[in-house]
Amino acid sequence: MKTHVALFAVLPICANATAAPMDFNTPKTITADKIEYDIKSESIKTSGATEIVNAGGGRVTLTDSYLSQRGEELSGDDIKIWLGQHIYVESDNITRENNETIARDALFTACDGCDPIGNAWEISATKIVYDETDEMMRFHNPVFWIYNAPIIWVPYYEMPGPGVKYKSGLLMPGFESTNNMGSQINLPIYVNFSDTHDATLTLSYLTKENPLFQLQHRLNLPHSEFRTNGSFTHNRYGENRWHIFNNDVIEMGPYARASIFLERASDKTYLQKYGFYDDQPYLDSGAKLELFGVSSYIVADAHVFQELRSTSVNHSTPAGNILPNVRAVYQTKPIYRETYATFGGDVLGIYADGTTSQRMIGEARIVSPWTLWGGNRITASLATRYDVYNFSNTDMVDGDKFTGLKTRFLPSGYVEWGLPMFRPTSTWTQILEPRARLTIMRHTGKDQFALNNDSAGAFLSDTTLFSDNRFAGLDLWENGTFADYGVRWAAFNDTGHNFELFFGQTYDFNDRAATDPSSGFYNGQSDYVGRIKYSNSKWVDLSTRFRLGRDNLALRHMETSAVIGTPRNYFNIGHIWSQRFIDEQTLGDDINEAITGIGIQLTGRWSVRFNAAYNFEEGMFQRHSGELHYDHPCYYLTFGYRRDNASKEDYVGNTTYQFRFGMSIEGQRY
Fold first, then answer.
1. Mean pLDDT, residues 100-122
2. 191-224 burial, b if ≥16 CB within 10 A, otherwise e?
3. Which residue of 125, 179, 184, 359 could cross-link 348, Cys pair, CB 3.0 to 4.6 Å?
């Protein structure tokens, strides 16, 4: 059948996602089985398969074509207007009116050649209108086809042209079940303000609860970014429930950066019930200012917390809001050879219900590292620290409440020795390094004043050995003289294989402050700690940290992580087991939990993912989730589920399901 295109001089075509006007007055190339040029009429006729490409890259394919002298008329069979490498509009009747190109009884697809069995999806319509002004494609009476099977009809549909990077409009709906609230249909609307500013509004319809409104807002400016997301619902019980998360980062030049963060929810269970929960134990709001120098930095931050747990561990986390926390460090240039000094300050204010405390710390340290004969490394250090506390109605470690000032002074110093011994061969290089440190501190009974300031927890591990402070925070002091010692062995080769072993212990010469009986610290010898690591720099990464009892080498604590595989096919696991003591002789409940993930690329397009957290002591999954994903060049779909076994106040976890489908056009997902 002969088809006809009139007034076709400036049809917009997208080649490589860039708009290129299709101007037949100046075609760049015409390729055909046979080309005839009529000198009298200055027209061109072709026979067989024909391709016309203009100077801007626009392309049309057809059969047995006729191109008039001025390009105002083009006719032929099987006309296809190509909008990209795999994208075309095919029609029997295409005309142009002002800035609109109109194709009647047309077919649109972005799947040409993507699948050997045919186009994965197509949209047929009685009329397709492409508007040059707003670069939108509008479909009248469209029918969506999948592999030549009609799936759905709607009276009207519109989408951005393939060359449009951002465009406001409706996005693909999402479907899922919810936590005891029935089925949920998500209808997202994308709003584009500029190339660096956009938002997504989502209306969620729930079959057993009132609608949920969601907002995601994104703004990028030179040297700064702003991110906000939140939600709101007025539920069937007449309650307003909501959340808002905000994170803004502002670069204030090469030496300064400011951050503003906000995390609030209407109540403890809202995030879990509506699917926004990410295992966070509390919400943190505040601000931070960072100032950087060549050899110094200052950080000032403030935090206001919202507790999400039913109960919290009062003595290992801050009880109250932190307003403010200011830390500053300055390091001098080398004073003599490699010897340098550092000066630090720390100001902390904590405000809780009916109680406040402020802490000011000043510290100075000089460090002098030396490399001596035979590769021996000696590091000597002297330090002094002075603390001033101002308490108001604060719970103290002796059980009383106190208001007033308390001070303490702590001089200290250490000498550390290490001897790394290398043994290179043609295949492997091995390193054996014994290491020891003797730390001398003033022994004082004022090792801790108040119960709740910064973290006062003590937990022995390989990372706490050879550190200036073996505790998690600054309020609990190291007390007296102690020694750290251990040995490290490592080996590596040119093919990327790396091994590491470490084993060590600490010894306290003075009676320690009362610490958690599960910490691994005791008067005298501590438990033994170590780590084992292996990596082949390709598909295996294994590590474990452990602690063994000082008397019988019984396993007290072990943390293991393993990643095996590639990004497409992998297995990872994180496991923690810890023996807990009520006192030094009485065992409590162990901690025994694992978090695992599995990913399998079943075919080039099908993949499956599974994640789970399992509590061995309770003999149950805390949560698990999985998804089956299909990624086609022209579309994608995901079937997923989540199982949550948590129970808290009005929240009782169950299984929810999710289905997502979307089209892909030249790598752009819709």
1. 85
2. eeeeeeebbeebebebeebeebebebbebeeeee
3. 359
Reading phi first (left if > 0) and then psi (alpha if -120 to 50, else beta), residue 207 is in: alpha
Interval 546-566 mean pLDDT: 94
Q: Are 248 and 224 in contact (CB under 8 A)?
A: yes
Residue 273, SS3 per DSSP? helix
Span 42-53, average pLDDT: 84
Query: Could you tell me the two tokens for 12?
Result: 């917009």
Which two structure tokens, joined as six digits, stand for 399? 């059980």
Say whether the peptide bond before residue 160 is cis (omega within 30 degrees of 0): no
Cβ atoms of 182 and 162 closer than 8 Å: no
Task: Find the helix or strand (DSSP H, E) in which 654 lies.
Answer: none
CB atoms within 10 A of CB 318: 20
The reported pLDDT for the residue numbered 135 is 79
**Whole-prediction pTM value?**
0.78
DSSP per residue over 302-349, as a string?
EEEEEE-SSS--TTTS--SEEEEEEEEEEEPPPSBTTBEEEEEEEEEE
Say how far apart CA 121 and CA 105 lie, in whole Å.
17
CB atoms within 10 A of CB 274: 25
Residues in the chain: 670
Measuring CA to CA, how many Å separate 8 from each of 22, 86, 665?
8, 22, 25
DSSP-assigned letters across all residues of 534-564? EE-SSSEEEEEEEEE-TTT--EEEEEEEEEE
**150 contacts: CB under 8 Å, gap ≥ 6:** 143, 144
How does pLDDT run across 281-314, given as a tens digit for each residue? Answer: 899 999 999 999 989 999 999 999 998 876 644 4
Token pair recorded at residue 227: 């991110």
* CA 333/CA 343 separation, integer angstroms: 12
Quote the CA–CA distance of 33 and 578 in Å, as a whole number: 78
Distance, CA of 396 to CA of 101 (rounded, Å)? 79
- 138 vs 474, higher pLDDT: 138
Whether the per-residue pLDDT at 528 is higher than 90: the answer is: yes
SS3 content of the chain, % helix, strand, coil (to 5): 0, 65, 35
How far is the C-alpha of 616 from the C-alpha of 575, rounded, in Å?
Answer: 10
Structure tokens at 184: 């949920």
Dump pLDDT digits (tens) for 562-589.
Answer: 999 998 999 999 999 998 877 666 667 8
Q: In which region does residue 582 sit, left (phi positive, over 0), alpha (psi from -120 to 50) or beta (all else)?
A: alpha
Q: 461: which DSSP letter? A: -
What number of other Cβ atoms are within 10 A of residue 123's Cβ? 20
Q: How far is it, in rounded angstroms, from Cα 176 to Cα 656?
A: 7
Name the residue type at position 60: V
